[in-house]
Specification:
Layout lengths: L4 E3 L10 E3 L6 E2 L5 E2 L13 E14 L2 E6 L2 E7 L6 H13 L3 E2 L5 E3 L1 H4 L2 E6 L21 H18 L3 E3 L6 E16 L1
Parallel strand pairs: 7-10, 10-11
Antiparallel strand pairs: 1-2, 3-4, 5-6, 5-7, 5-12, 8-9
Helix pairs in contact: 1-3
């Protein structure tokens, strides 16, 4: 055992069965992988990944053609996990549209994309589920299978379009080139 490690659980199925405490309160997941209470990245109920960027402009190209573009607004990369449902999608879209990361008159982050009438560019990105804890090649086993991921991506886009007038998208599973001007910069990882 390495100094600072402690055995998490005898029934752990994690390859090492150990987690680092280093003075933090460690809570084991069912498989024994430790988490810090309240952390959005390792909480057992966490599901869909989103990486949100406040942008001055953003676009996505597929086969050298612009497929979607926005002016000022949000670029949202999304990745579904196997436990995600349409309920997860509804929560994610509602949270995204109400997230207050645009400046108000006093220069404080206090306005949402809906408040400022900004655009929303939604791009699927299964690599947000990458696990790089072992080896040098990321594992993407945490991402939803393609058929489920596509259905949830489509549901996400449909719900976003129902609630917000200016929505552009990439295409699920396509090789895309995303261009953006990050405003701030403001980049927020989000898990639900």
């Amino acid at each position: 055992m390495i100094e600072g490690e402690e055995k998490i659980s005898p029934e752990c199925t994690h390859p090492t069965g150990y987690g680092f405490s280093r003075g933090l309160i460690i809570v084991p997941l069912p498989c024994g992988i430790p988490t810090v209470p309240g952390s959005p990245f390792t909480h057992p109920e966490s599901l869909m990944h989103l990486l949100i960027q406040r942008v001055a402009q953003a676009s996505v190209q597929i086969d050298s053609q612009i497929h979607g573009s926005i002016g000022p607004g949000l670029l949202a990369f999304i990745c579904a996990e196997p436990a995600d449902t349409t309920e997860t999608v509804y929560k994610a879209v509602a949270k995204l549209l109400k997230l207050r990361i645009f400046a108000d008159e006093a220069g404080r982050m206090n306005r949402s994309v809906q408040d400022v009438g900004g655009g929303l560019l939604i791009v699927s990105q299964f690599t947000l589920a990458a696990d790089t804890r072992q080896g040098n090649r990321p594992s993407f086993i945490g991402a939803a299978p393609p058929a489920q991921g596509e259905a949830l991506y489509d549901a996400f886009v449909t719900e976003a379009r129902r609630l917000h007038p200016d929505v552009a998208t990439g295409r699920f599973g396509a090789n895309m080139q995303v261009a953006l001007v990050n405003d701030g910069p403001v980049t927020i990882p989000m898990r639900l």
